[in-house]
Amino acid sequence: MKAKILFPLAVATMFLGCSFFDDNPPVRKQPRQATKTMPAKSSIKGFIKDVSYKDSKYCYEIVASDVKNHKLNKANFCANRYYYDKGDLVYATFYADKLIDMLLIKEGGSRGAYNGIRKP
User: Fold this and answer.
1) Any idea where the domains of the chain sit in the sequence?
2) Nearby residues of 51 by Cβ (< 8 Å), 6 or more positions away
3) Is 103 helix (H, G, I), strand (E, B) or coil?
4) Where is the signal peptide, in residue numbers (predicted)?
5) What are the start-end ranges of the E strands in 1-120?
6) Residue 79 burial (C-beta neighbours within 10 Å; 0-12, 13-18, 19+)
7) pTM of the shown model
8) Distance (Å, rounded) from C-alpha 116 to C-alpha 87?
9) pLDDT of the chain along its 120 residues, tens only?
C-alpha cells in the first residue's frame, strides 16, 4: 500500500523538479516617466487659394490636391516672408504649427487663377 502512494509521489517529484522552491526576487516596477508628446511634423501638397498681408506677415490658405499618407486637407498659416503667388502648386512642411519650408512644384497658369482645386 505504501508503494502505491510513494511511487507516484516520487515520479511526480522527479518531473516537477524544484519548481516549488522558486527563489526569484520580486520584480520591481520602475515608475513610469511622463513622456512628452513631440509635435508632429505634417505636410501639405496643394494650391495656394489665397494670399493676404496682415500684421507684417504673409498669410496663406492652401487647399490640398494630395491627401495620401496622412497629409493635411487644408492649411492656413502666416509666415514672415513671401513665398509664392495665388494659384501655384506647392509642397509645404510644418512642425508644431510653424512653417519650415515651402517648395514650388508648378507655377499657376496666370496670376490670381487657381486651377485643379477639387470641389467638396
Assistant:
1) 41-106
2) 58, 59, 60, 61, 82, 85, 86
3) strand
4) 1-20
5) 41-54, 57-66, 74-79, 89-95, 98-106
6) middle
7) 0.56
8) 9
9) 677 788 888 877 777 765 555 667 778 888 877 766 666 788 889 999 999 988 888 888 989 987 777 777 888 888 888 898 888 999 988 887 678 889 999 887 645 444 544 433
